[in-house]
Every structure is written in C-alpha cells, then in structure tokens.
Alpha-1,2-mannosyltransferase ktr1 (Coemansia biformis), 136 residues
Amino acid sequence: YNGCHFWSNFEIVDLSFYRSSAYQQYFDHLDRAGGFFYERWGDAPVHSTAAALFLNASQIHYFDDIGYFHPSVLSCPRGARTRGSCVCDETKSFVQNGKCTVLYKQARQAILSPDSPEPAHKGPVNHVQAGLQGML
C-alpha cells in the first residue's frame, strides 16, 4: 500500500456500493485479518481501496473545489486565491500539491481519455471491467 487515499471526512456514496456482495466480501476479509483492531486501519484507505478495486474511473468524483483541513492535511479548494472569503495557504496544501493527487489525476485522465496524443500516465492502470459493474 502506497499511502495514497481520499480523505473521506467528506464523501457522497450510493449505499448500494457498500451493500454489494463484492464490497461485503472485501470488508469481511479485512475484518478477519484483524487490522481494524490491531493496526487501526481507517475508513479512508479502506473506502479508497474499494473504490479503486470495484468502480470504474468515471464513477469516482474528486471534489477539488471544496476545502479540507485535518491536523496533518490541508487541501485548498480549487481557485482559492480568486475567492475573496477563502483563507487558505496553497503552498501548504498537501493534498493539492502531493504526489497522490497528481498521480490520481494523471491516471484518471489516461483512463477517461485513452486516445489523447500524450497520455499522462504511462504505467499500468487497473479498473473494473464493464461486465463487473452489474455486481455492484
């Protein structure tokens, strides 16, 4: 695990995703492994990993226009400097400037626009095949 995940203190989810057989099996496996109790696995990496495993890139939306603050993480909303009422130091924005967000945006662009002349992401990208979407 590379440490990249969506910070899920704000997320909008169709609950049928969490109720799906695929997600339930995934969650049960993690629960049996004991990491929630012994390793303090959190909801953000668990949800992010599930989204990467079971959803198509077009089913995931990253809210980059909403600010977020957690004691170790700061994300300035897109266009923060142009908003008069927003106080956010973009130079300290871990999420916007961090490698995880950059890699996510590059991979998403490559998946959703594979015919672009210069794909941003050159490595392998795994995503759910169309036939599996009916399971969710």
In short: The chain has a mean pLDDT of 73. The radius of gyration is 17 Å.
